[in-house]
């Protein structure tokens, strides 16, 4: 493994096309802190792409009923966009489509709370103490008209040329308890939903990012059911457009999955979280693949992304004051610093 200083130097030398950071959108009350973070810290790193997890935390004009409490206004978003523009940072808004329409059993997010008829019926899975998150039914005849309205608004207000549509950890799909999806091939259901979203974005000239876990065979690779699929969605990798950019999150280990996606024809970003050593190995892997392969493969290895999966206020408090509420948060902030701090 390359040492940290050499890896970071190589980020600059290699000029990876994407050097990303994913974090939740701030609450309106945190807007000043967030723009200060961009100005004081993020602008001093080599981060050039900010993936901002918005989901339903925006005051949608098309569907105001779906905006969560403490949602950003149009003026709030414009302040974020202007600040990022000033420092050459591209914003890619993120909204979870298909899966992640709840958190655990009871914390149901806006879409299914307002439109419960859209839910893919989880059936007996709901009785499982480890039940994780709900999905909307991809075959419901009315769901896309609404979610595409939300997507279009986010693209417009963020002046975005690309959007991240999530699609990770889809554990509820093609269930026998769903009258529309029962008995259908899960890989095709997943691929058809990806394609429907891609076609909508492609018609508007907007690039599409998505997580890659549902496209990996968790059993064959040993990656498990979280960072890969145990519910037979993985053959969808051969059924979707190669123009989709895959965000390959592997948080505990650094398997050769970026190479797999690149060999399949996709542009790919390797994503880290809470283990600095894993993030550095992932960076090393991407740099090595770019250096030692022909141009056609090199150009598919777009770069790296650090992800943070708690609130912005918890990140900045840990980052500035070392007030880290958990070992996970501490590890995630340390990983960010390892990847990006003092690069310039």
TrEMBL record:
It holds the Pfam family Glyco_hydro_20. It comes from the Bacteria. Keywords: Hydrolase. The keyword Hydrolase applies. Gene3D superfamilies: Glycosidases. Residues 68-274 form the Glycoside hydrolase family 20 catalytic domain. Belongs to the glycosyl hydrolase 20 family. This is Family 20 glycosylhydrolase.
């Amino acid at each position: 493994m390359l040492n940290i200083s050499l890896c970071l130097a190589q980020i600059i030398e290699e000029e990876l096309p994407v050097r990303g950071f994913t974090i939740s959108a701030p609450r309106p009350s945190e807007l000043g802190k967030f723009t200060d973070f961009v100005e004081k810290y993020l602008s001093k790193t080599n981060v050039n792409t900010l993936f901002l997890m918005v989901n339903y935390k925006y005051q949608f004009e098309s569907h105001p009923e779906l905006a969560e409490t403490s949602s950003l206004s149009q003026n709030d978003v414009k302040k974020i966009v202007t600040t990022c523009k000033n420092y050459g940072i591209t914003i890619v808004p993120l909204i979870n489509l298909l899966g992640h329409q709840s958190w655990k059993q009871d914390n149901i997010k806006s879409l299914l709370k307002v439109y419960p008829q859209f839910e893919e019926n989880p059936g007996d899975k709901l009785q499982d103490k480890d039940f994780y998150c709900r999905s909307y039914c991809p075959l419901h005849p009315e769901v896309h008209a609404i979610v595409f309205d939300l997507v279009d608004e986010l693209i417009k207000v963020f002046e975005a040329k690309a959007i991240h549509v999530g699609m990770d950890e889809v554990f509820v799909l093609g269930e026998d308890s769903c009258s529309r999806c029962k008995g259908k091939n899960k890989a095709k259901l997943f691929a058809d939903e990806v394609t429907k979203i891609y076609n909508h974005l492609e018609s508007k000239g907007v690039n599409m990012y998505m997580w890659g876990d549902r496209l990996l065979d968790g059993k064959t690779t040993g990656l498990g059911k979280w960072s890969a699929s145990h519910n037979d969605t993985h053959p969808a990798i051969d059924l979707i457009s190669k123009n989709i950019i895959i965000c390959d999150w592997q948080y505990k280990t650094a398997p050769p999955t970026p190479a797999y996606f690149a060999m399949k024809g996709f542009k790919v970003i390797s994503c880290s979280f809470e283990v600095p050593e894993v993030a550095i190995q992932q960076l090393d892997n991407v740099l090595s693949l770019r250096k030692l392969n022909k141009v056609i493969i090199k150009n598919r290895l777009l770069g790296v992304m650090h992800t943070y999966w708690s609130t912005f206020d918890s990140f900045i408090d840990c980052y500035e004051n070392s007030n880290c509420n958990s070992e996970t948060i501490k590890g995630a902030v340390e990983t960010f610093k390892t990847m990006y701090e003092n690069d310039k």
